[in-house]
Amino acid sequence: MLAPSSFIQNPNPRFLPWERRSPRSRGGCIRGTTSSVLLSTLSQRPVSPNMLSVLKIRCAVLGAGFAGLSVAWHLLQHSSKESQHICIDIYDEVGIGGGASGVSGGLLHPYSPKAKLLWRGAECWKESLNLLSIAEAAWHSRDSTSETQEFDQELDGFIVRRGGILRPAMDLKNLNVLNDNAQNCLASCRIEPVDKDTAQSLVPSLRVPFNTAFYMPNAVNIHPHRYLQALFLACENLVKEMSSSGFGGTRLCLHKKSVNKLLELQEVSSRHRSLRLCSRVLLGCPSFTRVGIRGEYDAVIICVGAKADMLPELSGRLPLRTCRGVIAHLQLRDDIGEEYSDHSPSILSDAWLAIQGPRSMYMGSTWEWKSRNYLPYVSAEEATNALKELLPKASAIYPDIIKEWTFAGARAGLRAMPPLTPHGSLPLLGCINDLFDGNHTCKYWLFGGLGSRGLLYHGWLGKLMAQAVLLGNEDVIPSQLTSWRRRRSYSYYN
After folding, report:
1. How many separate helices (H) and strands (E) can be counted in the chain?
2. C-beta of residue 128 within 8 angstroms of C-beta of residue 108
3. Which of 47, 102, 226, 437 has the fewest CB atoms within 10 Å, measured from its CB?
4. Ramachandran region, residue 17 (left: φ > 0; alpha: ψ -120 to 50; beta: rest)
């Protein structure tokens, strides 16, 4: 297997790397094939710079959440390193962060609820922090005329809150398990056992029933919607840089459009001969107009979370379960003068508290299995039921939440939960052409099943997916993430 830790470099830049001939790969993916007849012909001989100026890889990314924007960023980044032109169309009916990613709690660390390091947690943690730094840099460098203002008027709000996370031990068994697992923590995300006095110096009035809590000072709290906006802005900035460096054919376009079936993309692809459907500024127009958009996409990457099972081509064929989660927004009462300290951590327990500011926090989350409701809107009845479930759990460790905080609203997302494996619940990745009937010159890829850990997984796995797409080689993806396809029937998951 090719090393997943870094992008694979093309040893012979005179040939396009995804055009090399090699045996059939897993998932019906033929390594070294593409939908372009022109590329197929040119792969037999060296490609001149003039030829490369008109050659493009065309990718459709379905979904503008954690998975979709991570893939888009890494596709752009790697194509710039390989001197490739790439056109990326992102499809999302709501827009940036409109799905479950945009309503997540935003607590980021590489551990399970028992403080055990998750599968490939070190790589996932490192790449997530890297994307966060890229997004922060783009956000803080934007000017007052940035189009990002249309998405979020809270321009001075945080993207990353670095207050750490605190988890009190709730019973003796829990204490022993947490203590044992904490011994194997990452140096870059330490887990420090602290006594009751230390814990309460971090969070006054915190309950620490067994005199021990576990503090992760390097863990962070993300504002998911603002982070996704910033990551998209970083993608746009990279396209501008590539365009000014001679890659005028590179293009990034967000379509606020739903894709109800994958066949629509072939139909839309054959109709696109202008720039009319783009909902944002299109970069690299001269080269794009000269070449035009014809034929199918070279790759379609499906990053729509729980909605993947709603595509007719994939319905009932993926080992995913759906789970709706409601998150409550709480605000400190106006008559309370003492605010939650900017340096105090968020809290993990049976219910988590993600601090949003000195007078604002999110509390979550409920778990409604088998729900098909992916709308973010929460009815009064659903909100009431969520508070009845979450408040007793939260007040068991932070009693001030009952007397000092008030309900300010609720939002919800539909998670796509993957099956349990010997390595834990792992996302589903890979080429899925073998799930379709007939021959397809386009390659279809799945990046789904991130469950409740999308923020942790999206950076590293988005990087691997971009590699696989550009190389046409699924073997860069660890087999643990593609083994789900070996099952013949998935009906028992539904």
Report:
1. 12, 20
2. yes
3. 437
4. alpha
Contact 464, 470 (CB under 8 A): no
Q: What is the 3 state secondary structure string of 82-131?
A: CCCCEEEEEECCCCCCCCHHHHCCCEECCECCCCCECCCHHHHHHHHHHH
Do 188 and 194 form a contact (C-beta atoms < 8 A)?
no
Are 460 and 120 in contact by the 8 Å Cβ rule? The answer is yes
Q: CA–CA separation, 166 vs 170, rounded Å?
A: 12
Residue 431: its H or E element: strand 428-431
Angle between helices 454-471 and 66-81 in degrees, nearest 10: 40
Model confidence pLDDT, tens digit, residues 270-324: 454 333 334 333 443 333 322 333 347 999 999 999 999 999 999 999 999 999 9
**Beta carbons of 67 and 462 less than 8 angstroms apart:** yes
Sign of the CA dihedral with 369 first, then 373, 376, and 381 last:
negative
Residue 32's pLDDT band (cuts 50, 70, 90): very low
Q: Say if residue 41 is exposed, middle or buried (CB neighbours under 10 Å; 0-12, 13-18, 19+).
A: exposed
Are the C-beta atoms of residues 181 and 167 closer than 8 Å to each other?
A: no
pLDDT tens figures, 399-438: 999 999 999 999 999 999 999 999 999 999 999 998 876 6
Radius of gyration, alpha carbons of the chain: 23
* Mean pLDDT computed over 168-197: 96
Question: With contact defined as beta carbons under 8 Å apart, do 33 and 194 qualify?
Answer: no
Q: Which residues pair with 413 in a beta bridge?
A: 325
Q: What is the mean pLDDT of the chain?
A: 82
